[in-house]
Prior knowledge:
single chain; four-stranded antiparallel β-sheet; 12 strands; 43% helix; elongated
Amino acid sequence: MWETSARLLKLLSLLQTHRDWSGSELADRLGVTGRTVRRDVDRLRELGYPVHATAGLSGYRLGAGHDLPPLLLDDEEAVAVAVGLRTAAQGSVTGIEETSLRALAKLERVLPTRLRHRVNALQSMTVPLTGPATVGADTLSAIAAACRDHESLRFDYSKPDGTAGTRTVEPYRLVATGRRWYLVAYDTGRDDWRVFRVDRLRLRTPGGPRFTPREPPDPDLAGYASRMISNAPYRYQGRVTVHAPAEAVAERVTPAAATVVPVDAATCLLIGGSNSLDELALWLASLGVPFEVHEPPELTAHLQVLSDRLADAARGSRRDG
């Protein structure tokens, strides 16, 4: 009995990780015969899990049923959990966005239609006091599911300069930075890895053709995304040595603004960018610690101009006083 129960739980876990499984694949993973798989699927159906047969593939899919599977949640509790996960996924609680999104994707796969309509209605009729989130939970959950199931995505994408185009990508991971979300994906049209701001894309065909995942561009995906976000898109690329420990600087700099690279216990290298020298200079000054500019060369001269301007303003204020 214990062996059968453990196998049922493992089967349910496998059904939740991919959209479709063939009977032979499940049998290999579970180490049983195809007949045993069919019996276990029937047991899951008896327990209320909506396991559907896949036409033409002799396989199985976990879908949404007429009733919520036995999660020990009634309708009101299921709606409350879904709304709470959507709110958390959109960044209202720092640090749990990605976890909430994964849980939301699992829940929405089996949420009955009548409850999904209630969740959508409640979410659309709620206005947060802090202003709307930049990305809808529906978009995030669709992208997360495509990453999980290795399904390509096609979307319209707007660049910072206002130009737009259509991209077809192999999605790999979502990266959250504060209230912004980014998609790390392989752009098949450009034959290279790219990082896309999710609030700038509009999905066309979620759930496209399957693909075999490629090796990621960097084992440290968070660091890779930070470098791409903070540096690549801007006119001026800054490299600055900051005379403060990397840990202290990282507390004041978001990954979307710059990459912090430790040099030694007392200094670090700051790599970031901006389309404005004024913005770059004022941002560095706001760190409140000594720094030395290596790049771009225009920034050094601009800092001198800004310094003279501020000194003149200070002298004028003293004379008026």
